[in-house]
Every structure is written in C-alpha cells, then in structure tokens.
User: Which sequence fits this backbone?
C-alpha cells in the first residue's frame, strides 16, 4: 500500500542529464499556469529523491513560491491520482487547467540531441520512442546553430508539402482549408468529379460489358510477357507462326515444350525412325 510523507521541493535533486532543454515560451506558459491555477499533475522522483520527470515543473514551482511537497511512495503498481478538492471539471477553471496541462508540455519540449546521443552510448534503449531515421536526424543537428536547425526543419516540411501536397504521414481531412481551396479551384475549372469519368474510360474508346471485360482479363493473364515462350517459325508465304522451339511450325494440335524437351520423347522418336 502506498504511503505518504511531506517535504520540501528544495530537498529534491534535479536531473542534470535531462534530455528536455525546455523553451522560453514553454517556461513562460508553465509559470503563468502555476500562478493562475496552482499545481496540477504530480512529478516523479526516484528512491533517492532525484527527479525523473517534472524537472521544469519543480523548478518553476519553487520560483513562484510553491515549496511544500507531498511525497507518495509507491512501487509503480498503482496510479497516483492528485485530487484537487477546490476544482469541478465542469468549471471554466478546470477546463482551462486541462488545456494548460497539455499545451505547456507541448510548448516546453525541446530535446537535446547531445544528451540523447550520450544516453544511447550508455545503453539507453530509445527504439520505442523514435525510429532510427528520426534519431539520426536529431543527432545530425549536434553542433548546428538553432536557427539553422529551424531552417532545416522548415525546408524539410516544405519539400514534403511540395512533393506530396499533403505530407505522407498526415491524415487527410477533406474539411481542412487547404483541401477546400483545392476543391474550389477544381469547381472553378468546371471539373465535376461527382459525376464520374463517363463511359469513354477505356484507352481505345470502346466500352466492354462486364462479361467481355472478364474474358479480356482472362486472355490477358494467359499471355506471356513479350509473347510466346516458343520460337517463331517463318513460312514460305511470309507468314510468321508459333514455332516448336527449333524454328519449325507446330504440328496441328500443338506440341508442348515439355514433350519436345523431354529426352525420353526424343529417344522414342529417334528409335521410331
């Protein structure tokens, strides 16, 4: 069963190898949230009192005058729920705090590629959080000025947008402005995509019935790429017909290549004179 004790934030030790460098905007948003709404979710410490997660929260809370801490001791088998007795989820304040919790985490995230590389070299497994190409891209920015990194990222995004219109890892939402603008452009050109492409869709301009189309597909599948695997035979009248593999025309009814190349069949034909 979890036990609790009280203490001071000043008694906790920050993680000096924290891979999140944080951002100026994120720090401002975090401070504003703590001042307006107070402390929300908990931070995480190890058995020695060293902060695993929530370094920025602990640091900023101390700066705004929140120093008291309640330590809940657990082995990770229970979820620790922080209950705010002064809040109601249906209130505007609680709803705003919910947004603050998510948005501050987003704004205050800036990974340190040098620290990530150091952790990788120390044997920390990050495969569940990044693909190899993503890690390679992060590590490639080591020593590159922040302005140049931002430019590289913007160029990469622009290149994807230019090549694919919508980046290939995005979810297509036809309600978005860029798609609606494209649809408006189609309509302005007189394109009526909802009417389909009409009957003249076959390259040669003809229309086949479903039965004809099925027969055509069966014939196509039976064809060999580039023509028959048998050698052709040229006749005296100038016609070229399917050959038996030696330049002679096939006998009526045809002879399979398997029979023609079977040594026992050839021996029987030789013995027969």
Assistant:
């Amino acid at each position: 069963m979890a036990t609790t004790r009280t203490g001071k934030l000043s008694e906790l030790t920050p993680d000096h190898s924290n891979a999140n460098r944080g951002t100026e905007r994120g720090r401002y948003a975090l401070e504003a949230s703590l001042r307006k709404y107070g402390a929300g979710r908990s931070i995480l410490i190890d058995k020695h009192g060293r902060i695993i997660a929530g370094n920025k929260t602990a640091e900023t809370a101390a700066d705004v005058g929140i120093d008291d801490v309640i330590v809940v001791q657990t082995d990770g088998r229970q979820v620790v729920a922080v209950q705010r007795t002064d809040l109601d989820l249906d209130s505007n304040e609680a709803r705003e705090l919910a947004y603050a919790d998510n948005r501050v985490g987003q704004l205050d995230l800036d990974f340190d590629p040098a620290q990530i590389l150091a952790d990788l070299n120390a044997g920390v497994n990050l495969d569940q959080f990044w693909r190899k190409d993503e890690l390679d891209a992060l590590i490639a920015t080591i020593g590159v000025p922040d302005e140049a990194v931002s430019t590289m990222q913007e160029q990469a995004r622009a290149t994807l947008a230019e090549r694919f219109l919508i980046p290939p890892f995005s979810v297509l939402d036809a309600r978005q402005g860029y798609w609606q603008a494209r649809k408006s452009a189609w309509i302005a050109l007189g394109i009526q995509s909802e009417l389909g492409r009409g009957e003249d869709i076959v390259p040669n301009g003809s229309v086949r019935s479903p039965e004809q189309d099925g027969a055509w597909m069966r014939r196509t599948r039976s064809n060999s790429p580039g023509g028959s695997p048998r050698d052709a035979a040229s006749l005296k009248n100038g016609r070229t017909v399917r050959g038996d593999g030696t330049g002679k025309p096939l006998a009526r009814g045809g002879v399979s290549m398997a029979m023609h190349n079977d040594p026992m069949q050839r021996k029987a034909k030789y013995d027969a004179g």
Remarks:
- The mean pLDDT is 78.
